[in-house]
Every structure is written in structure tokens, then in C-alpha cells.
Design brief:
- The protein contains 4 helices and 23 strands.
- By secondary structure, the protein is mainly β.
- Strand 6 and strand 7 form a beta hairpin.
- It folds into 4 domains: 93 residues, Beta Barrel (Thrombin, subunit H), CATH 2.40.10; 100 residues, Phage tail protein beta-alpha-beta fold, CATH 3.55.50; 82 residues, Elongation Factor Tu (Ef-tu), domain 3; 66 residues, no CATH class.
Length: 372
């Protein structure tokens, strides 16, 4: 496995991204892929003039065996030690972090039913592609896959961090967003950044469409296991109050499925005064119909519902012959986790993160599973 370093150079037409260096000798590498978050990386490498020249902030870091995730260097730390040697610690987040440099401005309003894919794509276009001053050079819309992105809703949002808002949408619908490099033409060495929207697959024992993936102590592919379930933060009914004053405020009640009752009911109040009942159409201010406005309030309420959280963190066999990471299963997939000795099974739980580590002891995989 080799580390690749790319340099970004703005041009009149956008940006050129060129491969400038390849490194295969480093002390350690952490590669943290997250499904509902940006993800990050850390490279620990011997310090010398050449490496200091290669690993510069703003450059892109990739791997020759992972063409889906690329990081942007945000921090470089040099430590000198006469006894233990000189080292660089290079850290950063994956390319989705570029969207954290923008907020959603002006207000983005979808008062009629719109797919989540169209919402996200329009938010990125208006805040990253439309204006010269706010442009992120080289950013393009890529592929969209997964039924979750075709779900439709009403939504109004303003002033939120763009990246954080996108991942909030992802967690609500079960999808993910990622920016990767794509070569403009084979062998050109010139790349563009593609924003892809996707959805993980169900590989649990509860389905038969895909091959089953099971991590279990009885299969010797589950090395360590930490499990917790927490309902203390649960919120399953939202009272949402929008614009207006006093008893005249527009309001609704939001919950998923059948309405929870008695001891199973966990309520939360959502102040949605920031959700306007007006929108702009062809440069004119028009009133949003009451049914459409209540749909906006329902969406705001859904963002504040918190399910029961079931989390397990494990160490799994990195070189297991049964299943290979990024070949048989991927971050975002639903799998089955079982600890036979304690009689504990999670028949369908989502792999939401994977820390891949390389050091002098070899390669290790530390997954995070989450259900809710």
C-alpha cells in the first residue's frame, strides 16, 4: 500500500489536481472512514527535507488501494528528538471537509415535495458552484444511487454549515455523501472532484439478496467486542411550533410510525420560528400554503427525533479469509454481529465507521456498528 500526494492549482477555468509524490515508507497510518461524517486520516512519517516539502497543508492525500476516499492536509507538526529521531505528524479530513467552509446562504426553501438528492445537489450548487467568490474550484456533481435519496419531503434551511447539514440529512434518511477524485481522461494526471450520494447495502442474515456478512467470536473473526444500548437521549415525539405569536403560532406534532404512548413516549419541544411561511418565487414574496408549511414543520421536527442508540465497537480480523473489507463489505452496509458466549446477537446493525491502521505490527481494522 502506497500513499499518494496530489497538488491543487487554481486555473482560469477551475483547478488542476496533479499527482506529485508517492510514498511507501511511513511509520504509521490511520484511515478513519465514517458513513455519517467526514472521516479523517493521520500519517506519522520520518522528518526530512523531502518529506517536509511533500506534505504541505492544502495538498490532497490518497492511497493506491482506495480510490473512494481522499484527504486534504490540514495540519503538519514537526517534532525533533536527538534520541528517537525526527518525525512529521500529518493530519486532515477527507474532501467532504471542503463543504464545511460554506454555510447555507441565502435561505433554501422547498415548500413542495422534493427528493433529498435534489435538495442536497441544489444546496451545493448555490453555495459552492454558482458564485465566483464562493466557488470551490473543480467540484462537480457525480453519481446518485440508493432509494433513500429518492425519498421526498419539504424543507427550509438557512445559515447552517453546509457539510454538517448534508450529514444530518444523511443520518435521517440512511444515505451518505462523499467527494472523490476522478481523472478527467485516462493517463492525463488531471483530476476533478466528484460529489457522490449513495446508500449502503443490507448484507445481514435478515435478507437473501446479498451474501451474508457475520462477525462472531465463534467464527474467530471478532477479536474484541464492546456493546452498549442507551435510551437516555431518546426523543420520539416532537411538538413543533413555527411562525406566529402565542396561541396563533402554527404548530404540528411529529413522530415516526404509530404514535408512541405512555411509558414509551419521549417528548421534545422544537422552536421553529426560523421556518418562514413565505418564500421567493420569480423575485416576489409569496405565502406558503398551510399544508405545505406544516410539511416544513414536520421535517424540522423529524430532525430532532432521537432513536434508541445501540452501539458496538470491535476489533475484527483484518486478514480474515471469509470477508475482505472494501471487497465483500463496505462502510454503510448492514451486517450481523454475534457474541455467542454471551448469547448476544445483533441480526441487522449498520457499519458506520472503520478505522484502518498500519504500523510496525501490521494492519488492523476497528469497526463501529450502530443501530437505532
Amino acid at each position: 500500500m502506497q500513499i499518494e500526494v496530489y497538488e491543487m492549482n487554481p486555473t482560469e477555468s477551475g483547478v488542476t489536481i496533479t499527482l506529485t509524490a508517492v510514498c511507501d515508507s511511513f511509520s504509521s497510518l490511520l484511515w478513519d472512514v465514517q458513513y455519517y461524517g467526514c472521516g479523517n486520516f493521520e500519517v506519522y512519517i520520518a522528518a526530512n527535507p523531502r518529506n517536509l516539502d511533500i506534505f504541505q497543508t492544502g495538498r490532497i492525500v490518497g492511497r493506491d488501494d482506495d480510490k473512494q476516499h481522499y484527504g486534504i492536509i490540514e495540519s503538519v507538526t514537526l517534532e525533533t528528538d536527538a534520541e528517537n529521531g525526527d518525525y512529521l505528524t500529518v493530519t486532515g479530513r477527507f474532501l467532504m471537509s471542503l463543504l464545511s467552509r460554506r454555510i447555507i446562504y441565502p435561505t433554501l426553501s422547498f415548500s413542495t415535495l422534493t427528493s433529498y438528492a435534489d435538495m442536497v445537489r441544489l444546496a451545493v450548487y448555490r453555495n459552492c458552484m454558482q458564485s465566483d467568490n464562493r466557488l470551490i474550484p473543480g467540484l462537480r456533481h457525480g453519481n446518485t444511487s440508493g432509494d433513500c435519496w429518492e425519498q421526498k419531503s419539504r424543507l427550509q434551511v438557512s445559515y447552517e454549515n453546509l457539510m454538517e447539514w448534508i450529514f444530518k440529512v444523511c443520518e435521517m434518511i440512511g444515505g451518505t455523501a462523499n467527494i472523490r477524485l476522478q481523472e478527467t481522461s485516462a493517463g492525463s494526471g488531471i483530476y476533478t472532484m466528484m460529489l457522490n450520494l449513495s446508500q449502503g447495502k443490507d448484507r445481514s442474515i435478515l435478507q437473501d439478496e446479498n451474501a451474508h456478512i457475520m462477525f462472531s467470536d465463534s467464527y474467530c473473526n471478532l477479536l474484541t467486542f464492546v456493546y452498549s444500548v442507551d435510551l437516555s437521549a431518546q426523543k420520539n415525539v416532537a411538538y413543533v411550533l413555527g411562525c406566529g405569536e402565542g396561541m396563533e403560532r402554527k404548530r404540528t406534532v411529529c413522530y415516526r410510525g404509530s404514535e408512541p404512548a405512555q411509558l414509551n413516549r419521549y417528548e421534545v419541544y422544537v422552536d421553529a420560528k426560523d421556518v418562514s411561511d413565505e418564500t421567493q418565487e420569480n423575485g416576489e414574496t409569496v405565502q406558503i400554503p398551510d399544508d405545505d408549511y406544516l410539511g416544513l414543520l414536520m421535517e424540522k421536527g423529524a430532525e430532532n427525533l432521537v432513536p434508541i442508540t445501540e452501539i458496538s465497537e470491535s476489533t475484527i480480523a483484518a486478514d480474515n479469509r471469509q470477508y475482505q473489507y472494501n471487497k465483500d463489505y463496505f462502510v454503510g452496509d448492514y451486517v450481523t454481529v454475534e457474541h455467542e458466549r454471551f448469547g448476544l446477537i445483533q441480526p441487522k446493525i449498520q457499519l458506520v465507521g472503520m478505522i484502518e491502521s498500519y504500523d510496525q505490527n501490521g494492519r488492523s481494522l476497528t469497526p463501529t456498528f450502530k443501530g437505532g
